Amino acid sequence: MKIYQEDLATMKRIVDDYTQETVDFEIEQTVQTIIQNVIKNGDQALKDYSKKFDQVDLDKLLVEPSELEAAYGTIDDDLKASLLTAKDNITAFHELEKETGFVDVSTPGIVRGQKLTALKRVGLYVPGGTAAYPSTILMNAIPAKIAGVQELVMITPPQKDGINPAVLAAAKIGGVDAVYQVGGAQGIAALAYGTETIPAVDKIVGPGNIFVATAKKQVFGQVAIDMVAGPSEIGILADANARPSELAADLLSQAEHDRRARAMLVTDSLDLAQAVSKEVDQQLTTLPRQEIAQAAINDRSFIAVMPKVTEMFDLMNAIAPEHLEIAFDNPSQYLGLVENAGSVFLGRFSTEPLGDYLAGPNHVLPTGGTARFSSPLGVYDFVKRTQFLQYSAEQLANVADKVTKFARTEGLEAHARAIEARFKD
Amino acid sequence: MKIYQEDLATMKRIVDDYTQETVDFEIEQTVQTIIQNVIKNGDQALKDYSKKFDQVDLDKLLVEPSELEAAYGTIDDDLKASLLTAKDNITAFHELEKETGFVDVSTPGIVRGQKLTALKRVGLYVPGGTAAYPSTILMNAIPAKIAGVQELVMITPPQKDGINPAVLAAAKIGGVDAVYQVGGAQGIAALAYGTETIPAVDKIVGPGNIFVATAKKQVFGQVAIDMVAGPSEIGILADANARPSELAADLLSQAEHDRRARAMLVTDSLDLAQAVSKEVDQQLTTLPRQEIAQAAINDRSFIAVMPKVTEMFDLMNAIAPEHLEIAFDNPSQYLGLVENAGSVFLGRFSTEPLGDYLAGPNHVLPTGGTARFSSPLGVYDFVKRTQFLQYSAEQLANVADKVTKFARTEGLEAHARAIEARFKD
């Protein structure tokens, strides 16, 4: 692995170069055409695209509930047990995220507050092929159902040999209400605008390739979307006491996701840096996804040696990694220094893959530096708020002059007159 | 006003036609070019565009703090009092929105939780000319500062005669940290990517014209944005007891905002519908912004007469109005029927303009049906969450088999090995 020994300012510039992404206008155009076609031709467009992109000739889009039941019956008992444990832990964690509204009646004659309502219908995109992760279905579906979403609609690309049973079993366990086989930008268009078969939803969540991500960005506004997810990332902060073999394994667990994944170690020990680099090379040789992991390690990953702990955190906050491991003794002491990160793993036995599957916290996390302003997927993503306000005649009279002054300053006479209309009789 | 007497299904189709908006690809292209130019040429691009679009030749972008002080000194005392009352009420309401994280240590050997951190730097767009609303500055700035945003940067288009003193005074009262004079898509690009003078922010909020809205949509992902705001809307639910003159005044208070504004009354009384329509025509004749309000009333507004209260709410939930007035007796009894609305005004003395200025709830609200999935602007828009997790060796050992099973099912061998690396010695 590339080892840097630069000062903080230089490291921040280097990190910035790693995070630059450019817009692909050709993909933008292709996606725009697909969306317009789905708006115009509905189900027929979906079937045409399935034939063209997935090489599958569909007679129907809906996956029958009986097929979900059947899939649940076929998966092996160990996987079933893992899925059910994951469900329990994800549920327990996300129950803690539930919020309530409020009402303030502390001033006589004034009621003001906010109420929460679950989104009615949500769409979940699940990639096909090797990127079909049952764990992701649970991570998206469970918070939505805890929030109170009435209709959770899942779409996933059709497969020549039928949809992966583990995916359908996870849909059943996660409480998905309906599954349709359609993928890509056309699937996102169907969820945003609706077709004869697929209902238009209020929000679309779930990961996908560049076509899916671009389509989600384009339909944003028509519906809500979760963050447009980029390649996976791990940042590790470690001192000389950490174990190189474990850190290397953790770096590789992210690198194997994607050629564009990023694995980043920041440490105050050059010895550790060198030992980890050696371990990474060695562990790579026996990985089934060696080629992918190697590309991610070579092109997108690094080790930075920085002398001061505060600077280590400063750099990591500038990176704003999706996953952050703190491999120090007493790691929770450092939580206050973390400003930007999706999910933090504290100490030796909190290796990142634990969080990917079944510890409970969500694994749908902000990537590409967006942890500066985004949160993990949670129950709060499936509710919206409505304010309410009630004034008595007396309280309105108390502020009438101030409101009309304000309105007339802004040149909005009709606003002022709406107040005055109350006091005409 | 157009009065409909149709069944619910027909009304829903009519309402759907009103909300259709189309993408303007020419504007998309123009905005794309502007953003690329600002990324490449920084401050110089901003100055060139100010000359071209605003006809102002700028020597500097920053508005000095002393200019804010001076503006605060020049505004009249009544306006100052209105702004300060608004500040107090907005602060009181938004303090109630503050959230905390959580930690769960109920299982020995497992710590899991979530912490909240304020966004570090936020950009606020304030339109120029007649659309420069001091109230909007307070509505955006106060929640940001309550959340703990360290650096709140405001931009507003340069004006030939200097920026409106009320705008600068509101910036001072709202706690804005720096003001730059730059507008349009170029201003949004500056906030998203930074220039020599203007710092890149984590999130951009605030209303603007179609160029601003399009630019916000295009930089989404690079930074967070608030909802892309459309024209203002009011929905009113009223029965035969409501007063036509008051309802007409309220409908017009939204109609005067914009030719594309929408004013919608749903009532079970045809008599009331006809009386309100007559009142609207009459009140229109003396409005300074008559032409704008008339266009909004003619082209985008309607009255629907529906016999049943449940259907009235069903239709209004399909509309998902930005503002909703419930002009019934005992209006809070009906709050449970409201699913989709930005802000609800209960009863005769809670006319919508009261909420625009100083009752306390936010006036930055979801428009164009987006209340189906979006919330009013609030303190929660200026914080993000970070999960954290710590497992003991024993607890990791307890779930190790389940995690490795999961990982191998998903074809991610390196994930499984990261778990196993902990138990090698």
From TrEMBL, chains A, B:
Q: What the protein does?
A: Catalyzes the sequential NAD-dependent oxidations of L-histidinol to L-histidinaldehyde and then to L-histidine.
Q: In which pathway does it act?
A: Amino-acid biosynthesis; L-histidine biosynthesis; L-histidine from 5-phospho-alpha-D-ribose 1-diphosphate: step 9/9
The Gene Ontology terms for molecular function here are: histidinol dehydrogenase activity; NAD binding; zinc ion binding
| Catalytic reactions on record | L-histidinol + 2 NAD(+) + H2O = L-histidine + 2 NADH + 3 H(+)
For the ligand (substrate), the binding residues are S232, Q254, H257, H323, D356, E410, H415
State the organism's lineage: Bacteria, Bacillati, Bacillota, Bacilli, Lactobacillales
Name this protein carries in UniProt: Histidinol dehydrogenase
UniProt cross-references to PANTHER family, sorted A to Z: HISTIDINE BIOSYNTHESIS TRIFUNCTIONAL PROTEIN (PTHR21256:SF2), HISTIDINOL DEHYDROGENASE HDH (PTHR21256)
The EC number(s) given in the record are: 1.1.1.23
Q: Which residues cross the membrane?
A: none
Which terms are listed as keywords in the entry?
Amino-acid biosynthesis, Histidine biosynthesis, Metal-binding, NAD, Oxidoreductase, Zinc
Cellular component annotations (GO), alphabetically ordered: cytosol
Spell out the catalytic residues: E322 (proton acceptor), H323 (proton acceptor)
What Gene Ontology terms for biological process does this UniProt record contain?
L-histidine biosynthetic process
Q: Which family does it belong to?
A: Belongs to the histidinol dehydrogenase family.
Q: Where does NAD(+) bind?
A: Y125, Q186, N209
Alphabetized InterPro entries for the sequence? Ald_DH/histidinol_DH, Histidinol_DH_CS, Histidinol_DH_monofunct, Hstdl_DH
Residues annotated to bind Zn(2+): Q254, H257, D356, H415
Needed cofactors: Zn(2+)
Q: How is the cofactor bound?
A: Binds 1 zinc ion per subunit.
Question: What PROSITE patterns does this protein map onto?
Answer: HISOL_DEHYDROGENASE
